[in-house]
Amino acid sequence: MPDLMVQIDGETFPLVDCFWVRTNAVGCAVGSVRPDLYADLIATPQQAQREWSSTKRQQTKDDKRGMQHLLLSPKQWAEQAKPCFLGRCGHPPIVR
Q1: Cα–Cα distances in Å, from 84 out to 42, 52, 91?
Q2: CB 3.0–4.6 Å: which of 16, 36, 37, 72 could bond 76 by disulfide?
Q3: In 23-54, which positions are buried (b, 16+ CB within 10 angstroms) versus exposed (e)?
Q4: d(CA 86, CA 23)
Q5: Closest Cα partner for 48 from 61, 31, 60, 65?
C-alpha cells in the first residue's frame, strides 16, 4: 500500500512523517501523536481528537474549551509544538 501523502502549507509529506498536535485555547501544544502510532491510521482532526477524548461528551467539552487538533509537518512540530512541551513557548496561561 502506498504512503498517504498530505499537503501542508504548499509542501507535500507522507502522512506518517507528520504529527497531530492538540492545542488549547491560546494555541499552546498540550499533546502530540504520530498518525501511525497505532494500528489505525489517524487521518482527520476528528480521529486525532478521539486519541485524547474518546466520548462525545468529552469532545463537546473540548470544543467549548477551544481545543484544536492540527496536522503539523516535522519542521512545524519542531518550531511550534516542541517549545510548548519544553516550557519555552511564551503562550499565556489559561485562567479559568
Answers
A1: 22, 18, 8
A2: 72
A3: bbeeebbebbbebbeeeeebeeeeebbbbbbe
A4: 15
A5: 31
Q: Please give the backbone phi and psi of residue 9, each rounded to the nearest 5 degrees, phi first.
A: 50, 45
pLDDT tens digit sequence for 53-89: 999 999 999 999 999 999 999 999 999 999 999 999 9
> By CB neighbour count within 10 A (0-12 exposed, 13-18 middle, 19+ buried), where does 15 fall?
middle
CA distances from 64 to 24, 58, 68 (A): 11, 10, 10
Distance CA(1)–CA(75), nearest Å, equals: 26
Supply 2's cell numbers.
502506498
Question: pLDDT digit string (tens) for 18-58?
Answer: 999 999 999 999 999 988 765 678 889 999 999 999 999 99
